[in-house]
Amino acid sequence: RSWTRHTMMTAYFLAGFAIFFEVAVSFHHQPSLSIPLRNLSSTTSQCNRKVPTFLHHHNPNVSIEYCTGCRWGLRSAWLQQELLTTFNEEMGSVTLRPSKPPSPGGTFVVTLQNSLDGNDSNTGTVLWDRKAEGRFPESKELKQRVRNGIAPSKDLGHSDGNDTAPVDASNAAGDDRCEECDEAKLSKETDNIPKANVDSVPDSGAILNKNDVDITYCTGCKWMMRSAWISMELLSTFEEELNSVTLTPSRPPEEGGKFIVSIGDKVLWDRKENGRFPEAKELKQMIRDEIAPSKSLGHSDVSEDTEESDDDEMDDDDAVEMRAFYGVL
């Protein structure tokens, strides 16, 4: 019986070796295939691809002005990221502009400033006005209008389709005077609230106001989402103080690995100089010191030294509770 088992195992081994040899020989005689492989080098090395030289200017710029009382900041940030992703090689910058009292409520306006069209004015072209259109734009609608303004030959794939259902403009907009931005309910003092400049969009050579924040990020390093998160943190914390936050992609021939946060003409954070990315509370403290020194930031005002000292002052009851929680005698 053991001899039979040994014979069968030998036969299985020889059969497997024969199959392996046949496959190896057939693969050796196959013609070589040219398969494009993804570049697995460091992310900053992706920044060396060639693009037109005009793309590293702030223009073309898309400005999204939204009503803070209606809580449309997240909708605006989503559209901002959609545009920056779709027009990764063409877009110069995308700006979020909170609209605050005494500006009228219910504002949602998308404006394009394109230095390539020969128009040197700062007013730009209105791509979408919620009050005029009667509704918010679908992302693909906005992409089509931006494409027509900055890159007419660009293929948008499925976003080029026109399957948007017709909308009744009389009912789509709803009541422009929502509860939060009803002028009758906003009778509080608004004279000291900084008002965003809604009449114009700055061109590539304009000097930003001290209440305008710009976040320049490297597209090759894929830092757009990080920049968008920081912009929303700032706009949420300084809803009444900031005029705008702009995301500006940095591409070749500019140096890779760029991440710079500035307010007005002052650089607050440079990743290469500081050696790391900023914490959200660090940026908030810097911006607060620049535009609203008396503003309280809550827990974002707590320094790391204070947090560490709080941990060191654990009393006996807390220590017993922690030991019981972690199963330490």
TrEMBL record:
Acidic residues biased stretches: 303-317
Pfam families, sorted: Rdx (PF10262)
NCBIfam families, sorted: CXXU_selWTH
Keyword Aminoacyl-tRNA synthetase: no
Region (Disordered): 150-176, 288-317
Keyword annotations: Redox-active center
Domain of life: Eukaryota
Protein name: Selenoprotein W
Database matches in PANTHER family: SELENOPROTEIN DOMAIN PROTEIN (AFU_ORTHOLOGUE AFUA_1G05220)
